[in-house]
Design brief:
The chain has a single domain, classed as Rossmann fold (3-Layer(aba) Sandwich), CATH 3.40.50. Helices cover 29% and strands 27% of the residues. It has a seven-stranded parallel β-sheet. It is globular, with a radius of gyration of 15 Å.
C-alpha cells in the first residue's frame, strides 16, 4: 500500500473512544510529518505524539468557556494548517477557532454512530469545514455539500 505524506502541521481533535478509533482508521496509509492531538483526558489515551488535554464541555457553560480558552491557547501556540476531526463536542471550538483565526483547512468526518441523525457537533462544524465526509447517504439532506465515504469507516 502506498503511503501518502502530509508535510503541513496537522491538528487531530477528537473525543476518546469511538471517535478516536474512527480517526485512526481514516488516517491509515497517511504519514503526518508534524501533527499533534487535542482531546480530553482519558487513561485510554496512550500516545507518544504531542497531545493536549482540554476540558470536555459536556453541554456545561463553564466547561465550554474553559474549553474555548484552552483551544484558543493551543491554536495560537501550534498554528496548524489543517485540522481533522471525527467529533465530538470537545472538537468544535478548536475547529471554529482554527478556521476564523488561522484560515485552516478543516476536515470533518461525521461519526458512524449516527446513521440517520446528524450530530450537534457535525451541524456546527459543517459550517467551518472545507471537506465534510458522511458515511450514510441519508445525511445528504442535512449536509448537501458533504462527500459520501466509499464504505463504512471501521
Amino acid at each position: 500500500m502506498k503511503k501518502n505524506k502530509i508535510n503541513k502541521k496537522v491538528c487531530l481533535v477528537y473525543s476518546t473512544g469511538g471517535h478516536y478509533y474512527e480517526l485512526t482508521q481514516c488516517l491509515k496509509g497517511i504519514i503526518l510529518k508534524d501533527a499533534y492531538h487535542v482531546t480530553f483526558f482519558s487513561k485510554k489515551i496512550k500516545l507518544k505524539d504531542k497531545i493536549y488535554f482540554i476540558k470536555h464541555p459536556n453541554r456545561n457553560i463553564i466547561n465550554l468557556f474553559l474549553n474555548f480558552l484552552q483551544s484558543l491557547f493551543i491554536i495560537l501556540i501550534e498554528r496548524p494548517k489543517i485540522i481533522i476531526s471525527t467529533g465530538a463536542d470537545v472538537a468544535a471550538m478548536t475547529f471554529i477557532l482554527g478556521k476564523i483565526l488561522l484560515k485552516t483547512k478543516n476536515i470533518f468526518i461525521e461519526s458512524i454512530g449516527n446513521m440517520d441523525k446528524p450530530t450537534l457537533t457535525g451541524r456546527i462544524c459543517y459550517k467551518f469545514s472545507d471537506l465534510f465526509i458522511i458515511q450514510f447517504k441519508s445525511l445528504k439532506k442535512t449536509y448537501p455539500k458533504a462527500k459520501l465515504a466509499k464504505g463504512i469507516i471501521s
